Amino acid sequence: MGDERAEQARRDVAQAISHIVREAGGSRRAREELRRELESHFAEAAGSPERLREALARFGEAREVGAALRRARGPRGPLLYLAKVLASLAASLLVAAAVQVVVNLRAAPAGDGLRLAVGISLGLPASALVVALAVLAWELGVAPLCARLERHPARLGVAIAAGLVAALGVHSLHGAPIPPALALAASAVTVGTWACTIAIAARLDRAYLERLGTR
Amino acid sequence: MDYDRELLTGTVTVLILSLLAERPMYGWEILREAERRSASAFLMKEGTIYPALHQMERSGFLKAEWRDGEDGRSRKYYALTAKGRRVAESKRRQWESLAEAVRLILAGPARG
């Protein structure tokens, strides 16, 4: 009798697992992986038929769990992630380009309106590189580079100072020293672009996670 | 105690991230640890943990690997990624701040 109860409990668990895996859907590999994980879960309660039944009761309705697993897997997940990254890049590039335009605006000679300085031909691609690196750092979770500098004035100051030293050093090495004021401006623009990109990436991350329901 | 669903929304994520910030764990272990630390006050429907774990893995907060235990059983362990650590810390601070604010409000007007 005891063996029958144990066998029935095991069958009930196996049935529940099959139902959950079926509801969750996905590739064959994903389903096998899920089945293995669920079997491993219930194996922890395998001491007696009563423990198995309790574990089954605590687990919840198979259909509901399966549906939740299907939503977690979500076929739109990878597309949504790609859209998020592209949106981060696009928004940040737009901001970076706007900053470069403002920084490179000059009064045209003879009061002929405004023009863009030659420096923008270097500034734009450099900014694009900064944006790309910042987005990459964010997506890879490289901790020190993902700090929200705009929330930490001291760190922002240190970053700009480091940029200033780097700019002076690089130009000096190439035998083309630049005025410290220009180096400071370049550093401030670069660090500002980086900080804006990280802030945009963080904001879009929150929206993405809200959409996925993990926030 | 049974908690309102709306109170629990978002709690599971914070709890999982906080526990995994200490060490990698498998699903059953996370549930037992949450139960033990809350003196059984927190008993979630156990099936809810796997959708949460899988979603966080897909979001890049967790990484998973199968490990063979000394008892010969294979278990799927989850651990925080660098991104997950950052999110865990952020959520922990937010939760503590919120809990303190709610506690102050529920405590009523200051005496004296």
Structure, briefly:
Chain A is mainly α. Helix content of chain A is 76%, strand content 3%.
Whole-number average pLDDT of chain A?
A: 86
Kindly name the structural category of chain B: alpha+beta
State the helicity of chain A in percent bands.
over 70%
Largest interface summary: A-B, 34 and 30 residues
Oligomer: heterodimer
Total of helices of chain B:
5
Count of separate DSSP helical elements of chain A: 8
Supply Rg of chain A.
28 Å
Q: Kindly report how far apart the N and C termini of chain A lie.
A: 48 Å
| Poorly predicted tracts of residues of chain A | none
Q: Please outline the major beta sheet of chain B.
A: 3 strands, antiparallel
pLDDT averaged over residues of chain B: 86
Helical residue percent band of chain B: 40-55%
Number of strands of chain A: 2
Main sheet: strands, sense, barrel of chain A: 2 strands, antiparallel
Short key terms for the protein model shown above:
heterodimer; A: 215 residues; mainly alpha; two-stranded antiparallel sheet; 8 helices; 2 strands; 3% strand; B: 112 residues; alpha+beta; three-stranded antiparallel β-sheet
